[in-house]
Amino acid sequence: MRRRETGCRVLVRRRRIRLWRKTVVVAVVRHVGLVRQQIHRLRELLNIKKPLRTACLALVASLLMTMRLMAGDIPDMTIVANAGMSIPSLSKREISDIFLGRRKQWDDGTTIKLALLKSSIEQDRFLNTYTGRSMSQYWAHWRNILFSGSGIMPKVFSTEQELLAYVASEKGALGHVTDINPLKDLRLQVVHTQEEVKP
To answer: What region does 72 belong to: left with phi over 0, alpha with psi -120 to 50, or beta?
Structure first.
C-alpha cells in the first residue's frame, strides 16, 4: 500500500511540474512577443538599425513592459460601434456572445461585423476579461466556427486608425480601441457596459 501511495504522489508531482513548465513557457513566449512590438515601435521612432543599439532598445523595451505589467499600467479598451445603430449599453454576457460569434445580429436584424486588432496586449486582456480566452484560444475558436460554416471571421486590422475607419463606414460594425477618442467622428459611438452605466 505504501508503495502505491508513493507512486501516486510521484505521478501527481510530475504532472504539477509539467503544468508549471508549460505555464512558464507560455508566459515567456507572450513576453517575447510584447518585447518585439516595443522594439519595432522604438526603431520606427528613432530610425535605429545598428545591432548594438537594437540590443539596448530590446533591454529598455523589456524593462518598460515588465514595469507596466507589474504596475497594472495597461489602458482599458473602449468598445465602439457604427453610429447608425442604437446601442445604449451591453452586458458582459452580451459582449461575450458577440465577440464569440454566438450572437450574429443586432435587435433590428442588422448583421454584426466584428473588427479586431492584429496584435495588442490591451486586446489580449479585453478578450480574457469578456470571453475567458487567451488570444490563441480566441482565434482557434473562430477557426472552428469558420470551418463549420456557421460564421465569418472578424476583420483584422494592424492599427486602431484602420479599425475605426472600418467601423465608421460599415453599418453594424463593432470593435474596441484604447487611445483614440471616437467622439471626434460622428459616424462612431461609444458602447458602454451595463456596469459602467449603473448609478
So the answer is: left
Query: CA neighbours within 13 Å on the CB side: how many for 166?
Result: 21
Q: Each residue of 1-51: pLDDT tens digit?
A: 545 545 555 555 666 666 655 554 445 455 556 666 666 665 655 555 555
Q: Within 10 Å of residue 118's Cβ, how many Cβ atoms?
A: 11
Say if CB 131 and CB 140 are below 8 A apart: no
**Among candidates 125, 124, 114, which has minimal Cα distance to 191?**
114
Residues making up the chain, counted from first to last: 199
- The x, y and z cell numbers of residue 186, run together, are 460622428
**3-class state of residue 193 by DSSP:** strand
Rounded Cα distance, 198 and 175, in Å: 22
Identify the top-confidence range among 15-24, 41-50, 66-75, 96-105: 96-105
Name every residue whose Cβ is closer than 8 Å to that of residue 49 and which is 6 or more positions away in sequence.
43
| CA distance to 79, 109, 136, per residue, from 180 (Å) | 11, 29, 26
Which residue type occupies 38?
Answer: Q
